[in-house]
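Today's session is about reading a structure prediction critically. Students often jump straight to the picture, but the first step is always the sequence itself: look for stretches that repeat, for charged clusters, for runs of hydrophobic residues. Only then move on to the predicted structure, which in these notes is written as discrete structure tokens rather than atom positions. Here is the chain we will use throughout the hour.
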Amino acid sequence: MDDPREPVPDQVLVERVQRGDRDAFEALCERYLPIVYNRLRALLPPEAVEDVTQEVFVAVLRGIQRYRGRSLFRTWLSGVIRHKVADYYRRRHRHSREIALEEGFQGGRADGWEEQAHVRMALYRLPARYQEVLLLRFVEGRSFSEIAEILDISLEAAKSRYRRAVRALAREMGCDRSGKRGDSR
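Below is the predicted structure for this chain, in token form.
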């Protein structure tokens, strides 16, 4: 019997879900819903976050039988999130080849939506390992020691990966070394 004061490890919950335990799936959903939702908020337009969050958990339920535990569940879930974000942008690209910039303006100002979209797209273009460290740090507010533990790397490796990720994000956003955006967009 599980100690109610200790959280059940992800791997135990996954094995239970694979045997058909709905309560275990609910526990995983409850544990990871805030993480998934916040990650998607960082990567998608606000109107898409709830739908894609639901798509992620449907995909988890459908695909959990294929999860073999070779990586942490959290890492596997991050892959599901990345696939659903890619699906969203592929669908959006098919339905709308061109987005009119004026649609986002209210009273002559953009309310930051253009800048948010630029950051999201730059983040999306980064390798998964860089996305992961930036999302852990900025979206989840994790310390470097927590990031190292989650990613199963050393503290120095976590800091180094973070620095490389920040530089890569700045390059993707077309920023110079001072952080100012260049005209090369």
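Discussion point for the tutorial: Residues 7-96 form a domain with the Rna Polymerase Sigma Factor; Chain: A fold (CATH 1.10.1740.10).
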